[in-house]
Amino acid sequence: MTTTSDMIARQQPLATAFGYRTTAAEVIAGHDLAGKRAIVTGGYSGLGLETVKALADAGVGVIAPARRVEAATTALEGIAGVQVMPLDLGDLDSVAAFAAGVRAAGAPIDLVINVAGIMATPFQRTPQGWESQFGTNHLGHFALLGGVADLLTEGARVVSYSSVGHYRSPVRFDDINFDVTPYDPWVSYGQAKTANALFAVGLDARAAGRGIHAFSVHPGGIMTELQRHMPHEELVKRNWIDADGTPNPLFKTPAQGAATGLWAATAPELITRGGTYAEDSSLKGVVPSEHTDTTGGGVKEWAIDVDAADRLWDISVAATGLDPFGG
């Protein structure tokens, strides 16, 4: 049984030949991926699109779930081996329909890379009653994986996009839906990103016996559609863009932002590091709970805590009716 101490040990820093500006194509160069199949959520814009391009160039057949099917079809036009299927991660009924379609096709799945997400949205609930950031970013992906789990091959990997935003909050188990405390869009986002990391911990613990491993990643700061709910003035105040809308030059490009997810999906050196949190195509260790400086990287213990991962898993099973690799 994996313990939090085990996770802290796995999370010890691991340097690689890659770095902050490494691109998706550079990370997967040399890996034999021809004939593999992947699901990439959010695969028609930003980091997801760059992920799909890199995988397709390496010979991977990709399923790209899309809430906006027409937009996805246009964005992915001309990329070989990509199939667009309808999916709204914020609606568990839609996720179930998507998963049923994938199961009906019956083809094995080698990679699941969960890139899609929403950030700092106004308060709203999913059709099933969950706060939307938690419901979309975590529960939607949990249900997707649960629905296709039987198709995952031995040696498959699942990559869960987290963020340094997890520094903002652990999972608020006593008030996940903000029923009691006032809604804060950034606390909500932090909770969801912690949940994304804990999902990798919980999944790896349950699937490793079948040779399947899960990881979470922080892609870095990148300007994408993820910021669409943030007003221009807030983006300027945070120094993410200047007054003219030009992104901070310290930010990564989408191709650079997609690198860590693909590293986690392919790096052989991670085979004994299941459930860990990666950034800049490396591992950077655990930082104290009170730590607020994000410049040096690292993951907070609450995002790799095994007890929290198990508690979240139980909530997710109850919410979705699915228990991938459980029982």
Biggest sheet layout: 7 strands, parallel
**Can you give the mean pLDDT?**
93
Number of strand segments: 9
- CATH topology call: Rossmann fold
How do the strands of the widest beta sheet line up side by side?
3-2-1-4-5-6-7
- Amino-to-carboxy terminus distance: 14 Å
Form type: globular
Level-2 CATH architecture:
3-Layer(aba) Sandwich
Describe this structure in words.
The protein has 327 residues and is of the alpha/beta class. The protein has one domain (4-320): 3-Layer(aba) Sandwich (Rossmann fold), CATH 3.40.50.720. The chain has helices at residues 4-10, 24-28, 46-57, 69-75, 92-105, 132-148, 185-207, 232-237, 254-257, 259-266, 306-320, and strands spanning 37-41, 61-66, 82-86, 109-114, 152-161, 213-218, 277-279, 286-287, 299-300. The protein has a seven-stranded parallel beta sheet with strand order 3-2-1-4-5-6-7, sandwiched between helices. A two-stranded parallel sheet has the order 8-9. The longest helix is centred in the middle third of the chain and has 23 residues, at 185-207. The model has no long low-confidence stretch (mean pLDDT 93).
Feature tags:
two-stranded parallel ribbon, Rossmann fold, alpha/beta, 14% strand, globular, 327 residues, 11 helices
Blueprint (SSEs and pairs):
Blueprint: H1 4-10, H2 24-28, E1 37-41, H3 46-57, E2 61-66, H4 69-75, E3 82-86, H5 92-105, E4 109-114, H6 132-148, E5 152-161, H7 185-207, E6 213-218, H8 232-237, H9 254-257, H10 259-266, E7 277-279, E8 286-287, E9 299-300, H11 306-320
Parallel strand pairs: 1-2, 1-4, 2-3, 4-5, 5-6, 6-7, 8-9
Helix pairs in contact: 5-6, 6-7, 7-11
